[in-house]
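Write out the bound-state structure for 4'-deoxy-4'-aminopyridoxal-5'-phosphate.
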Amino acid sequence: MSEDPAVYQVIPGTATVGFDAERVRRDFPILHQQVNGHPLVYLDNAATTQKPESVIQAMVDYYRRDNANVHRGAHALSDRATGAFEGARRKVANFLNAPDARQILWTRGTSEAINLVAASWGRSQLQPGDRILVSAMEHHSNIVPWQMVAAERGATVEAIPVDTTGTLDLQALQGMLDARVRMVAVGHVSNALGTINPVAEIARMAHAAGALVFVDGAQAIAHWPVDVQALDCDFYSFSAHKLFGPTGIGVLYGRRTVLEAMPPYQGGGEMIESVSFAGTTYNQLPYKFEAGTPDIAGAVGLGAAIDYVNSLDREGAARHEEALLVYAQKKAQAVSGLTLVGTAHHKTGVMSFNLDGVHPADLGTLLDQQGVAVRTGNHCAQPIMDQYRIPGTVRASFSFYNTFDDVDRLFAALEKARQFLQ
Ligand code: PMP
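---
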């Protein structure tokens, strides 16, 4: 994406041409409140996004009208609940352009999706000496599950280098790929730096070496349409709560042949075909991986979130987010003593930074006192913080419902915080 604001026709302080963020904001009741005596400026969207009224209402309606267990009951409510639940799965499949809804598995979120693949595929496939490659900027969720299964199977987890701007070194990746590499696991977008990784290219490179590709889409899914067939990845995961849906539910997409060859992850009801003490047989996809009563209301909420996102001008929304980031980074460059962390050319949604001599946590508290919500710390990405020799950053992360005024308020609050600290 371009870093030239002119390309996006930004008129700072007003609006991005063609996208009405002020109108969209009205769909999100939580945004209209005072925090510590100031109107809320919510810039923690990479941690979790806010929910539009339609998502909240869909979940309330489900519990008020349709609640029942799915797939089992011989009654109207169970039929309705099952219809809503499986309808949501089809919505996710269409949203990701997955070939078949049976390739969409419900999980608790991105973390559980990665754990599922690490445990099921990893335990059944990895041999001593096998290698798993992850990028050096991964979230802990896309490192630790691989480390756990690697330790069990005698495999290794190695980091693909990232340069000082936060860009993945594809040449280094090419040099690391060999026949022992079984999995390349990368984030589509870094939650700590905002870097967009070229996952289609990474998939081409990894497949040529015979490895599978897992894309952690937690930070990409809210920003632009994802097409898993175009990316040609083997797995793609995201969490509903980062897509304007509820917490507690997420998605694992998998390539059909790979999922079919994988053993179940957890045992219980729903995931079996028949159970006896002589031997148990397992259900088909996707149920083989869905033991127990699922988060039905969560699936309904995610379905409503997808409907909401599909109702927006997504290109306009992406252009607006891009314009906000460009505007914020331009302002940041004019603040003395401010260092941006993560300056890759291809970025979205995230501005991480530090102020000289100020601990990020102190800054976060002072911003909160002025109604500005940001995240501080290592953002569950300690290895990349260690590489930059910093304890963490202050992270402002944007969504389409943010405005240029929000960015101005952030910088005004920063200035006040700095005066307070000096
Ligand atoms: N990967 C990335 C890139 C993330 O940003 C996050 C959430 N911060 C996760 C994985 C984990 O997501 P969840 O906590 O919803 O499982």
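---
Confidence is low (pLDDT under 50) at residues 1-14.
The first strand starts at residue 34 and ends at 35.
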